[in-house]
Amino acid sequence: MPVTGLQHVPHLPDDAPGQSKRDFTSDQEVRWCPGCGDYVILAAVQSFLPELGLRRENIVFVSGIGCSSRFPYYLDTYGMHSIHGRAPAIATGLATSRPDLSVWVVTGDGDALSIGGNHLIHALRRNVNLTILLFNNQIYGLTKGQYSPTSRTGSVTKSSPLGSVDAPFNPVSLALGAEATFVARAMESDRAELKEVLRAAAEHRGAALVEIYQNCPIFNDGAFEVLKDRTQQAARIVRLRSGEPVTVGPEDDRRVLVRVAGGHGEFVPEAEVGAREVVVHDAAAPDPSAAFALSRLDSPEMTHVPMGVFRQVSRPTYDDLVRAQVEGAVDAAGGPATDADLGELLRGRDTWTVG
Amino acid sequence: MTSKTVQTLDRVVIRFAGDSGDGMQLTGDRFTSETAALGNDLSTLPNFPAEIRAPQGTLPGVSSFQLHFADHDVLTPGDAPDVLVAMNPAALKANLADLPRGATIVANTDEFTTRNLAKVGYETSPLEDGSLESWHVHAVALTSITVEALAPFEGLTRKEKERAKNMFALGLLSWMYTRPTTGTEDFLAKKFGGRPEILEANLAALRAGWNYGETTEDFASSFVVQAAPMAPGRYRNVTGNTALALGLAAAAHRAGRPLVLGSYPITPASDVLHALSGMKRHGVTTIQAEDEIAGVGIALGASYGGAIGVTSTSGPGIALKSETIGLAVSLELPLVVVDIQRGGPSTGLPTKTEQADLLQVMYGRNGESPVPVLAAQTPADCFDAALDAVRIATTYRTPVVLLSDGYLANGSEPWAVPEVDELPDLAVELASAPNAVDDAGEPVFRPYLRDPETLARPWAVPGTPGLEHRIGGIEKADVTGDISYDPDNHDTMVRLRQAKVDGIAVPDLEVDDPSGDAKVLVLGWGSTYGPVAAATRVLRNAGHAVARAHLRHLNPFPANLDDVLRRYERVLVPEMNTGQLALLLRGTYLVDVRSHTAVRGLPFTTVELADVVSTILEEVS
């Protein structure tokens, strides 16, 4: 059985009374704006965490700065609300030194992709055993409405009255480019899908990035409305299922992704597929190119937006490797260093005695 | 063979100087080891350019290593060399001004070509034009003799043979000062163990150098410097960075907690990362971060998890880490920040020393953000300073800045290795149970309920059942740690954090005033210890009464500092900055201390400081 992300984290005994959402709800008053998508994500996480069966004290949420980063205060686990963009670095230090913890990072599009972009890509590259939840609302909320690195070009905001000229990041493409071993996307409004993705992310050993589309009702209301609108949803959302063809559209108007030479693929009506090569999603493919191609189906117009797990592959994690080197050195030397061992270290190889 | 005389000297200062690629640092290191093994007291000063290979033969490319050894207590690497080994014209030109007339020059004539002379602006060769007549010059064809000595090594190219000329120079100097070469032979055997021919060639060059001294008539006598009287014990030679790394590892061992270093390579701090990365057997984890900010973030994350979190850097790195240090002030978690100061501002002088980060580490953060600061004073003292930094960080749950500098980092001296059980007990207690009861009488955990004596909050690490809590950089309510924007609470918390740092136990400042009637106090901090002590020694030997004291703790200051400052008519504060400690002392104690400053990237010389103190002594006589 493969080692999971939670392998070394103490679980509750089988006969322990079950945990509930209440056990994970802190006594702090939640202070997001009314209607904020963060409430929905918080409720989903609070009700999902008990399903993992972990000891509550072994779960840690680390966040940066921004609306999303208030998240840890509302969970009755260990938590740290740190500084802007740095949560992945702090979480790396914690996860590397403490294999018995399930370490989560909560961040937003500004926190993770702008000020903290460097730490995010390196946490993914190293494959530190972290579950990173990136709430993407395509706007700076806490600073009251400036464009973010995921805002569409042309966004009219407080700091871009004539429209932003910045080209946005696609967080999934970025993560795949950074050698991430687990990359997924979910919608705040689709709780079933969100919980499914969260479970897979938590159990993944290594860095798992989950981009969560989240509505900011104050500064960027309706950014994902076309994906929530029942009349448009089916035609736009591409539900990724590993081992199945990539399709979009309602049952009576199903379109299938077929391979196109030199391109990312093309959706064609099911009836017109013919001899063309159908793209079958394989999240476990060692080569990330196919997952990357899927991520490029997305566009600011949200014509086709893949949801679900893009990539889920196994690669040694940084923290496991670091600990293995230390533990290996300790074991090879016959156990933890004694006073005598330290004395030997202090003396070094070249000493002389006086008197 | 001529019979040679042997003269006894009490002290010698040698400077090896050559091109960056000539292996002068290695030569100096080896000579130092040989000297330490003989029981001389010693002090070293490596001085090298920031470029790995500056253009060959040019002044900016000169790298040097100075060693002062004696039959008595050595306090500094020496003001002026008695012997200069100059591997090329640039090395001669760059160092001649430091060389007193009558000193010895060993010059490699092979490099004194028209081209090389022209590169540094010599129109004629100083070895031949009489301009060095006031010095005692040994012109030796170091390169060609080395190549000739290695003629039997047919498998080696001429270039490879030339490269061994530093070993020839080392052999020659080892003969001159009767140093044993067995340590170097062992060292070479380890270094070139896998390449027997290179090993044999280096050994042959070393022996050829020794034999050259013994055989040729150019060198009429060799010299002996007797061992210095040193306290009984076991000694090793350490650089400041090595001692600092050992101190951190020892502190973690004595605290019973794992050490986690998060660091990004930066000169002159990288050797701390290198040394600790080799201590895995001692439970030390090192993480080479993606940047300076991540380095300190990793350390803080590890501290949050119950480790001794450390980050090591130099001035520019401190600038980048400032926000995270501020977070640690707010979180009240242990964190050790090591700043090996170098010349600034900005990139400044990466390989040169300076003490100009004091105000940065004291005040370079947003808001009222008090951080304890302490400074090491000699290379070996970096060990004790590291233990003290960990003690403060863990006892008071606070980030601590430990200041060293480029001079201490790379300089070395003999160190009496302590016994492990003599080291301070740094055992820490993690919170394990609720520490209060709520209104309903139920036990609860209050993350910001303080120890009444230290004002430290509990160190409650994740994984401890029943103590789940949230912390963050937003202002927290006293005791509960909940978010609070309450005006009075903020005022309380700011003052509590300050009171905690102000209340840190630091020993009183000891004043060295043997006659008891000095009117002038020289007050130093950090690496000025050696030059200050040497200068006061010179003055006392000349019959003057001078008091001397050295600050280990810059924040908080020792409780008796106010009293000490007022006890003297004049207080001189020498610093390698433009008066940062002087500013703090004046502002804190309203005492008009006299500031003497230099920012040349080099430590003070004994003569320079003795002159400054003499002037002040005249004022008060």
Automatic annotation (TrEMBL), chain A:
InterPro entries found in the cross-reference section: 2-oxoacid:Fd_oxidoreductase, THDP-binding, TPP_enzyme_TPP-bd
GO MF term list: magnesium ion binding; oxidoreductase activity, acting on the aldehyde or oxo group of donors, iron-sulfur protein as acceptor; thiamine pyrophosphate binding
Highest taxon, organism lineage: Bacteria
Keywords: Oxidoreductase
Domain Thiamine pyrophosphate enzyme TPP-binding: 65-212
Protein name: 2-oxoacid:ferredoxin oxidoreductase subunit beta
Keyword Oxidoreductase in annotation: yes
Region annotated Disordered, chain positions: 1-23
Pfam family, one: TPP_enzyme_C
Gene Ontology biological process terms from the UniProt entry: cellular respiration
TrEMBL record, chain B:
GO BP annotations, alphabetical order: response to oxidative stress
GO MF annotations in UniProt: magnesium ion binding; oxidoreductase activity, acting on the aldehyde or oxo group of donors
InterPro entries: 2-oxoacid/accept_OxRdtase_asu, PFOR_II, Pyruvate:ferred/Flavod_OxRd, Pyrv/ketoisovalerate_OxRed_cat, Pyrv_Fd/Flavodoxin_OxRdtase_N, Pyrv_flavodox_OxRed_cen, THDP-binding, Transketo_C/PFOR_II
CDD domains: TPP_PYR_PFOR_IOR-alpha_like (cd07034)
Positions of the Pyruvate flavodoxin/ferredoxin oxidoreductase pyrimidine binding domain: 255-478
The protein, known as: 2-oxoacid:acceptor oxidoreductase subunit alpha
Keyword match Transferase: no
UniProt keyword terms in alphabetical order: Oxidoreductase
Gene3D superfamilies to which the protein is assigned, alphabetical: 3.40.50.920, 3.40.50.970, Pyruvate-ferredoxin oxidoreductase, PFOR, domain III
Domain Pyruvate:ferredoxin oxidoreductase core residues, every copy: 518-598
Protein species of origin: Phycicoccus endophyticus
Domain Pyruvate/ketoisovalerate oxidoreductase catalytic: 21-209
Pfam families per record: PFOR_II (PF17147), POR (PF01558), POR_N (PF01855)
